[in-house]
Design a protein that fits this description.
The chain has a 14-stranded mixed beta sheet. The protein has a two-stranded antiparallel ribbon with strand order 1-2. It is an alpha/beta fold. About 25% of the residues are buried. The longest helix has about 50 residues. Helix 6 crosses helix 8, helix 11 crosses helix 12 and helix 21 runs parallel beside helix 22.
């Protein structure tokens, strides 16, 4: 009982508190209007004392001129619209065929809708349909007159007739048929469906399909045909693409090239290539790869049982079964080359290892899934007859252990190229020196190779070398150049790039009294001094400089065909003037790369053109002093720093 009485007492006290709170809130609400009434006059008084400000932006000179001369731009626009409407009505009146009987039966409705009725006079409709259509037009006119656009321009209209004319003009614009609707032909008056390709008539309106053909035939007789290029090389964009690809040729294309391009366009119709020469088949394969046409469907064109050479320049669309099919079909395969061979895996190479082939050359590109044990099995089985091994982009495979096997497993190896390899180190480079039969050697490694390892390799394998290519060797120094001079006696191609330690004195010593005959291809790009704070200062003569360039041209200029001194920026203008003077001629030089050499200008290029009568292409990217050089006929100057970007086939005699 005591608990119940306590609960009742608590409930009564809570109800009393709630009643008190409600009474207080009511009193506050009653006082609010009075307070608002007290402050309202003050706010109104303050509002009346505020000044209204008009903010406007700047006006143009034309607006000021029109205002001073009392000319209204809106009135000018309205009069122009009125003239257009009058012209449209006159054309409709000439083309329309008025039916006097229907106008008399229509009565007063024609007085209001005569202008809009003209385009529809050729319709076959009953009296009820006509009245219904005219009623809809009246409703449309009323809706247009109530629009904001019409009301905005209404104040510039003189009378009600002008208002009706402008409203009918706006209605005629809205009544133009859209694709999918029916309309009458402007010439033959036939009913047809309007499409997005419907042509306009000579006097307005749309034409049906037959009348459109007739009009197109009439215009086609007098139309001028597009002018074709006289050179036979295609558009300017295509020509520039060919120049940058190195496939540009001056003059017309030969018959073989035209036939190959025709075959590429109609590859679906080709069954076989027949007994074509290997050179022509190679051109076809190159063009197919360039246009992404080489696939499992077109691969049989290049693989026959009697095929001895297979060259795949883009194997991205081929799978492991396609590569195995090549080795299954050919019975006497001797030369194999595959670029972008992503799916050339261990099982494919193992299948090739088991075939009874006398493989003489093996060129693989992008097969980074081949493991070192598989390479070992392949060299053990097929290495005795191999004369050339070229491996590109194998990442962390084909390392020092494989290079150490080459002297043992490939006794007749003449060509070796390891490009973009991440595993070969100094030990592998030294192992190459044990291959005494090499005539062509090319390295492009990701590890920094020491000068001692390079010198050891050159002294061991350089006696018979005809090609020596060392790409991106930043640590190579004059010791390497000395090893080349003392060992190599048959070089025809020399490439050493991106060296930061070779000096101009070392190049002078190399090309002075060298027992090696004149070299045909030399590439010494980016052998220069690197200094970010003072790039023009080179007190130690690092890289290929003026004296080294003079010695190079004196030694090999007579037979030099291709010279690349890209970014050898410390060669001065005096050196170019001494080399390319009026007394010295370089008849075999056909391609010259002198980009990013600061002192090359129009005068230097003029001397080059005079001293090199058979020069075909000169690259001058980054030579900002080249302004307006005259390019002789048949020459190509690439990279001119102007809006054109390159000069193609000069016209100067």
């Amino acid at each position: 009982m005591t608990r119940l009485t306590r609960q009742r007492a608590q409930a009564e006290s809570q109800s009393q508190n709630q009643n008190q709170n409600q009474s207080q809130s009511q009193n506050q609400n009653q006082n609010l209007p009075a307070q608002q009434d007290q402050f309202a006059p003050q706010n109104q008084a303050q509002g009346t004392n505020r000044r209204f400000r008009h903010i406007s932006g700047p006006q143009s000179a034309l607006t000021d001129y029109l205002a001073t001369n009392n000319i209204s731009a809106s009135r000018i626009r309205l009069e122009a619209d009125r003239r257009r409407a009058a012209a449209a009505r006159s054309r409709q009146a000439q083309d329309g065929r008025d039916d006097e009987e229907e106008e008399e039966e229509a009565g007063p409705l024609t007085e209001f809708t005569g202008a809009t009725d003209a385009p529809d006079s050729g319709r076959n409709e009953t009296e009820a349909e006509r009245k219904k259509r005219l009623k809809k037009e009246q409703q449309a006119l009323a809706k247009i007159k109530a629009s904001k656009l019409f009301l905005k321009r209404k104040r510039y209209m003189k009378d009600a007739e002008a208002e009706d004319d402008y409203a009918r003009f706006l209605l005629s614009e809205k009544l133009e048929p859209v694709p999918g609707q029916m309309d009458n032909c402007a010439i033959c008056k036939k009913r047809f469906t309007v499409t997005a390709y419907s042509l306009s008539g000579p006097e307005g309106g749309l034409l049906c399909a037959q009348c459109s053909k007739d009009q197109a035939a009439k215009k086609g007789k007098d139309a001028k045909r597009p002018r074709k290029s006289a050179s036979g090389q295609g558009s300017r964009r295509k020509v520039q693409s060919n120049i940058l690809d190195g496939t540009y040729q001056t003059g017309a294309k030969n018959l073989t090239t035209l036939c190959i391009e025709t075959l590429a366009k109609n590859v679906d119709l080709a069954d076989s290539l027949g007994d074509l020469p290997d050179k022509v088949v190679d051109k076809i394969a190159r063009l197919f790869s360039k246009r992404r046409l080489l696939s499992p469907e077109t691969l049989p064109l290049f693989v026959q049982p009697s095929t001895t050479t297979v060259k795949i320049y883009d194997g991205a669309k081929l799978g492991p079964n396609d590569f195995r099919g090549i080795f299954q079909t050919t019975r006497n395969l001797q030369h194999f080359k595959a670029r972008n061979a992503i799916q050339f895996k261990d099982d494919v190479l193992l299948y090739l290892t088991g075939r009874d082939f006398k493989l003489r050359s093996f060129n693989i590109h992008g097969a980074n899934l081949l493991s070192d044990p598989t390479w070992t099995l392949f060299l053990t089985a097929q290495g005795f007859d191999l004369e050339a091994i070229q491996v590109y982009y194998t990442d962390r495979h084909f390392g020092d252990e494989i290079l150490a096997l080459l002297p043992l497993k490939c006794p007749g190896l003449k060509r070796l190229k390891v490009y973009h390899n991440q595993k070969v180190t100094n030990d592998g480079v030294k192992a190459i020196g044990n291959i005494k039969t090499l005539t062509h050697l090319g390295l492009h490694l990701q590890h920094n190779i020491s000068p001692k390892s390079l010198s050891h390799m050159i002294r061991g394998a350089g006696q018979n070398l005809e090609t020596l290519s060392l790409r991106k060797m930043p640590k190579a120094n004059d010791e390497v150049l000395t090893a080349i001079k003392n060992t190599c006696r048959s070089l025809r191609k020399l490439r050493v790039t991106d060296s930061e330690n070779m000096t101009d004195e070392g190049f002078v010593d190399l090309f002075t009294d060298w027992a090696n005959p004149a070299i045909e291809i030399i590439d010494l790009q980016k052998c220069r001094h690197l200094e970010s704070t003072k790039p023009r200062d080179n007190p130690d003569g690092v890289g290929l400089c003026s004296d080294g360039f003079r010695a190079l041209m004196k030694h090999s200029g007579g037979k030099l065909r291709d010279l690349n001194i890209h970014a050898c920026r410390h060669i001065k203008r005096d050196a170019f003037e001494d080399v390319f003077n009026k007394d010295d001629q370089y008849p075999h030089l056909s391609k010259l790369e002198i980009s990013f050499i600061e002192d090359v200008d129009d005068f230097v290029l003029g001397r080059i053109f005079r001293s090199c009568p058979n020069i075909r292409e000169i690259n001058v990217f980054g030579c900002m002093k080249v302004k307006d050089v005259k390019v002789p006929r048949g020459k190509v100057l690439v990279g001119v720093p102007n809006a054109i970007g390159m000069v193609i086939e000069g016209r100067e005699d």
